[in-house]
Amino acid sequence: MVDVHRLITHRFPLEQAAEVFEPVASLRDGVVKAMIEV
User: Fold this and answer.
1) What's the pLDDT at 25?
2) Cα(10)–Cα(24) distance, rounded to whole angstroms?
3) List of residues 6+ apart from 37 with CB closer than 8 A
4) What is the mean pLDDT of residues 3-25?
5) CA dist 16 to 11, 19, 29, Å?
6) Which pLDDT belongs to residue 14?
7) Which residues does 38 contact at the CB level (< 8 Å), separation at least 6?
8) 12 exposure class (CB count in 10 Å sphere: 0-12, 13-18, 19+)
9) Distance in angstroms (rounded) separating the CA atoms of residues 38 and 3
């Protein structure tokens, strides 16, 4: 079984979704897999 929690490199609250979208989409700052927490 794969622990998918280890695949998430960054977590952001829903309130920051708009401001972090561009860095996440362009894979900047070492972002591999990001999660927006609701």
Assistant:
1) 80
2) 9
3) 11, 12, 13, 14
4) 85
5) 10, 6, 16
6) 93
7) 14
8) middle
9) 20
Where are the domains positioned within the chain? 4-37
Q: DSSP letters along 1-38, please?
A: ---GGGG--EEEEGGGHHHHHHHHHTTGGG-SSEEEE-
| pLDDT band for position 3 (cuts 50, 70, 90) | confident
Give the tokens for residue 30: 């070492």
Distance from C-alpha of 4 to C-alpha of 38, rounded to nearest angstrom: 18
The structure tokens 């609250």 sit at 13
Q: Which residues contact 27 (CB under 8 A, 6 or more apart)?
A: none
